[in-house]
Design goal:
The protein has a six-stranded parallel beta sheet with strand order 5-4-1-6-7-8, with helices on both faces. It has a two-stranded antiparallel sheet with strand order 2-3. The protein folds into two domains: 39-55 and 141-271, 3-Layer(aba) Sandwich (Rossmann fold); 56-139, Orthogonal Bundle (DNA polymerase, domain 1), CATH 1.10.150.240. The chain is an alpha/beta fold and 274 residues long. It has helices spanning 3-32, 56-71, 77-86, 88-97, 105-119, 128-135, 147-155, 168-178, 188-191, 198-207, 223-231, 265-271, and strands at 44-47, 54-55, 142-143, 159-164, 186-187, 215-219, 234-238, 260-262. It contains twelve helices and eight strands. It is globular and about 60 Å long.
């Protein structure tokens, strides 16, 4: 074999290797481009918090039981937690109707708590300091086991934030206590409206200069996704059948009801390719 022929073979082999490497790099780049990912238009994910990200009910029961031990109270704390949560919607409706001026959730929770303490005959058993501390139990909701890991994965691709009826101090304290990795805090207090008012759902669109399809609302309550869906936001449902306790029976929505339907936040992260 002549030296010239050998050089030709070397050059041909080198060219083939280079072409193969370039093709591989191009394929890898194509796989990594946002256009090939699910929902490539979505830039911001916003989350309901109570029930979706944290277990509000379990925390109320745990802290209530601590109060019972300290004070010798005999209270059915699971029922108490459900009553307190049951006052949530009606108290916000007083703000929506104009019966109350804008009132942040901490204050509405305290109004409901005072009513319940009196109803159960234990108002005089707690000091003002103890009442105020117990009212902030909503600041200390425990993340579900999948929440922090799922959010951390989603944060790698998206801007993530709560979009809750909770006030800013509540949501900030919840994040610090539970290690929730939000990029920022969004919520009702910023626009002085409570969900399901459209002003709340459209606020991340306005704050981030986006269009509705560039924002996805994630929630464990179908009623919290119907409004955003009508407004053009993307929607993701997270199934939390035990939010209301071990006997929880929350039905899974029918396929196609929302853009994503998942069993937990880790699965949402997987469906979003993060």
């Amino acid at each position: 074999m002549s030296g010239q022929s050998t050089r030709r073979q070397i050059l041909a082999a080198t060219a083939a290797l280079a072409a193969s490497a370039m093709a591989g790099a191009k394929l890898k780049a194509q796989r990594a481009t946002p256009a090939s990912q699910p929902f490539p238009e979505v830039k911001v994910l916003v989350f309901d918090t109570f029930g979706t990200v944290v277990d509000w009910r379990g925390q109320i029961i745990a802290e209530g039981e601590q109060l019972s031990k300290m004070k010798g109270l005999k209270i059915d704390w699971p029922a108490f937690a459900d009553e307190w949560r049951g006052a949530y919607g009606p108290s916000m409706n007083k703000v929506r109707s104009g019966e109350l001026p804008w009132t942040k959730l901490d204050v509405l929770h305290r109004m409901s708590l005072d009513t319940l303490l009196a109803k159960h005959g234990i108002a005089s058993a707690l000091t003002e300091t103890e009442k105020a501390q117990f009212n902030r139990v909503w600041h200390r909701g425990r993340p579900w086991p999948d929440s922090v890991a799922g959010l951390t994965r989603m944060k790698a691709r998206f801007t993530i934030a709560p979009l809750s009826n909770g006030n800013l101090s509540l949501l900030t304290n919840m994040a610090k206590t539970g290690g929730l990795p939000w990029d920022c805090i969004l919520g009702a207090e910023l626009v002085r409206h409570y969900k399901p008012d459209p002003e709340v759902y459209l606020s991340p669109v306005q704050f981030f200069d986006l269009t509705p399809p560039e924002v996805m609302m994630v929630a464990a309550h179908q009623t919290d996704l119907q409004g955003p869906k009508r407004l053009g936001l993307r929607t993701a449902y997270v199934h939390r059948p035990y939010e209301g306790g071990s006997a929880g029976t929350a039905p899974m929505p029918a396929a196609g009801t929302f853009d994503l339907i998942a069993n937990d936040l880790r699965e949402v992260a997987t469906l979003l390719a993060t």
